[in-house]
């Protein structure tokens, strides 16, 4: 790593027994464009499915000048999945897995995953009084002060220089942000379902539980008749966050009043097995960006896709491999995208095939394209909505672009936090649980795939446009007339179901 700070982070992480040493190499990280040798090593052994080794061509990505040949390890190490690793308390070694399984295990493993053990969501305390704040710069200053105070209190209880702290618009702009969501939900409920059915709301990944409280407070205070028929159900994969949400619900007399209207379900949405036949609203705010993706590289001449895997050796070091044997889930995504997308989308095979072939014949040119990260888990989430929530109406917001992404198409930002500073890295194959892996959402592609799978109509708008329609913006304006709620999160979009 180039940064001294990054080196300090990794030295700190080395104090943990299961740390991988790959991230500590002083040589260039896994950037193909910086490696002046053939980038992949061919092997005739290996497989891509648990229990079914295949005789297929494997390509090992070379991340150093003289990398060790791991072909024999790849052939003998067992194939595992994120679900197989969930009971494990220690990070795995001497295994191989698909890229999506590695990412899911890193983020959601209940014993060492990022969201299960490391993530802390910032709570600013009392809501900001925007009408008393001078301007947006003054708001940033006040926010910085509250951030420091919040983390100082945490350090007084338990000092942690690798605390993973981040914020959401729900927390920064409460209760106004949550009230905008509630206003949208109640308006649409009254237009379509009232008084025939109850207002049933599902929220996926509810963080601190702040949105739940803001939505229910608004409905109780403004629409008491609707409140009597409202049920709010949280689906939360993280045991720690589910416990925090329960604590929030019991934190005051006002919040305890909602207890009969709330259910917190601690399970993965991908393990959902209950059929919900009634109409419902399904909220997913900043959730899709942390869904696991597969890595796909293409042969620049034949355009054949190769699926990414990662091998973890006996020392806990990571090595990328690519196989022509595409697993059924990734293969289905590629086929659905090809059939469903109504507009061209950016991917490694975009542009002139002739120019691509000429570039690939240059000395030291890679023999596979840069990776494309495809949202296979998002496709499976849409399957769950179709199969178990057939009458749902989706309400989702997420980032449509992100700065500082690792090389590739649809690639994520991978970062950790050390001594209250954000530290980015250039590969997703890092110490499981200590790094956030955040993907931008390609809304045009997502919308087409969602429509193809569920058969439902949608509309996409900017984050700002949604809030201008449904929030009381005047309550979030500073003395200068600026509204941080509108000017922040310019790189976010909202997709709404249409009934």
Rounded to the nearest angstrom, the radius of gyration is 24 Å
Q: Count the strands?
A: 21
End-to-end distance: 51 Å
Uncertain runs:
14-56
Global shape: globular
Quick tags:
7-stranded mixed β-sheet; 18 helices; globular; 7-stranded antiparallel β-sheet; single chain; alpha+beta; 20% strand; 499 residues
Describe the structure.
The structure is a single chain. This protein has 499 residues and is of the alpha+beta class. Helix content is 34%, strand content 20%. The protein contains 18 helices and 21 strands. α6 links the parallel β6 and β7. The radius of gyration is 24 Å and the shape is globular. The N and C termini lie far apart (51 Å). About 9% of the residues have low confidence.
